[in-house]
Amino acid sequence: MAGWLLLMLVVAVAGRQATRELDVFQIMLMRSVMGMVLLAPLVRLSGGLATLRTRQLPRHVGRNIVHYAAQYGWFLALTLIPLGQVVAIEFTMPIWTALLAALFLGERLHRWKVAAVLLGAVGVAMIARPGGGGGLGAGQAIALAAALGFAVSIILVKSMARTEQAVTIMFWMLVVQSVLGLWPALAVWRWPSAAAWGWVVLVAVAATYAHYCMASAMRHADATVVVPMDFMRVPLTALAGWLFYAERFDLLMVLGTGLILVGNLLNLWRAPRA
Prior knowledge:
By secondary structure, this protein is mainly alpha-helical. The protein has helices spanning 2-19, 24-45, 57-78, 83-90, 93-104, 111-127, 138-160, 166-187, 194-220, 223-230, 233-245, 251-269.
């Protein structure tokens, strides 16, 4: 989990640096193509090319259309609002996932999940106006839409995970998103400088192996131990924003983030046990 936390911080900082020179579509295409190369050792460890066969191609395509849009929104939000706000709003994703699972997978929506959704909604409302401004800004709205998109993506992954391995899901994610992003990326393509190449490589390496770290952590500890540790990304990313970009903390942002985290903890720890 320490590896996951560090690598996700690298993705946030390197992603913002890369967007200073390159369009988000180009960064996402380069990240997907590099990711396929970086995934090769994991494919070999999982049994080779036979692992990549799938009978659920339409689901992979549908899931990755949603996931691609959510990723684009997340990177775009990095250019519009502070890092801490992006990640804090992203952490509404588990709450929306619980709500969507109840609606589409038949999972029980008990009172603690309802409380988690309400706390998350109030937390987002507080974060969206950290300086006392009125209304939901474009950056916050895009970050929230990205969080909802990630939640939909997780629901679709959960429905496929009964028959598909993690490596298979990752492979088809990279393939489908490369195809989706090829034309938009070529339309805005510009040859990266040496510095931009470095930032994009960092994004690709960190994003690919961060998920491997998370999967490995799940093998060594219960989800009830692993998942709460991910909440550390909120203060750590806010700290990175303060160190690298002189981004200021705001009381409403701190309180809103706290409500989101409390909602997540309620959803995680108060769920009925089988």
